[in-house]
Amino acid sequence: MRCVYSGDLDPFPYERHGFEDAHAKALIKMWVLADKLVDSETTNLVMDKLVEFCTGMYEFPDVSCFNLAYGFTARGSPLRSFLCVLVLCQDQNGHFHNPDHLPADFFHDLGIELARMKREAYDKMVFKRVVATNVADLSLCRWHQHTPSSE
Fold first, then answer.
1. pLDDT of residue 16
2. How many CB atoms lie within 10 A of CB 47?
């Protein structure tokens, strides 16, 4: 809640011995709460931290993070989109050895995101492996929620 009121996200203390998943879950829970409160500023701040955490340190959220995100968000959610792009771009090691534990909607969204990425690559005339894109190189606005200005 402090983030909601102060607009600042304190860095979470964690070690490299099993707390990475707790960190990712905390960020996802914060994003879901801010989304439910219709607080786009906080969702954007949390998304930036989530992108930084998952790409800068190459930490990959576990299956429970995907279940949490998909259990509390609607289709078309920026959080869902980010998780799909993360899998398409960063999951070179195949973190999901048993996909039966992933939400069914995830595979639907994954197909949509892959098609979108291929279309964007074709539109830019980029003839290279589409999924080789680094998530950190993509615009963060892709997953931000923007409210219309009151001008």
1. 47
2. 23
Model pTM score: 0.74
First to last CA, the chain: 29
Which tops the pLDDT comparison, 144 or 43? 43
The answer to whether 103 and 10 are in contact (CB under 8 A) is no
d(C-alpha 40, C-alpha 28), whole Å: 14
Sign of CA dihedral 101, 80, 73, 37: positive
Cβ contact 28:143 at 8 Å: no
Q: Dig out the tokens for 69 from the structure.
A: 């995100």
Distances (CA, A) of 35 to 32, 64, 74, 146: 5, 19, 11, 12
> In whole angstroms, how large is the CA radius of gyration of the chain?
16
| Helix-, strand-, coil-residue percentages of the chain, each rounded to 5 | 60, 0, 40
**pLDDT tens digit sequence for 5-29:** 666 665 454 444 455 567 888 899 9
34: which residues sit within 8 A by CB, 6+ positions away?
3, 4, 40, 42, 43, 46
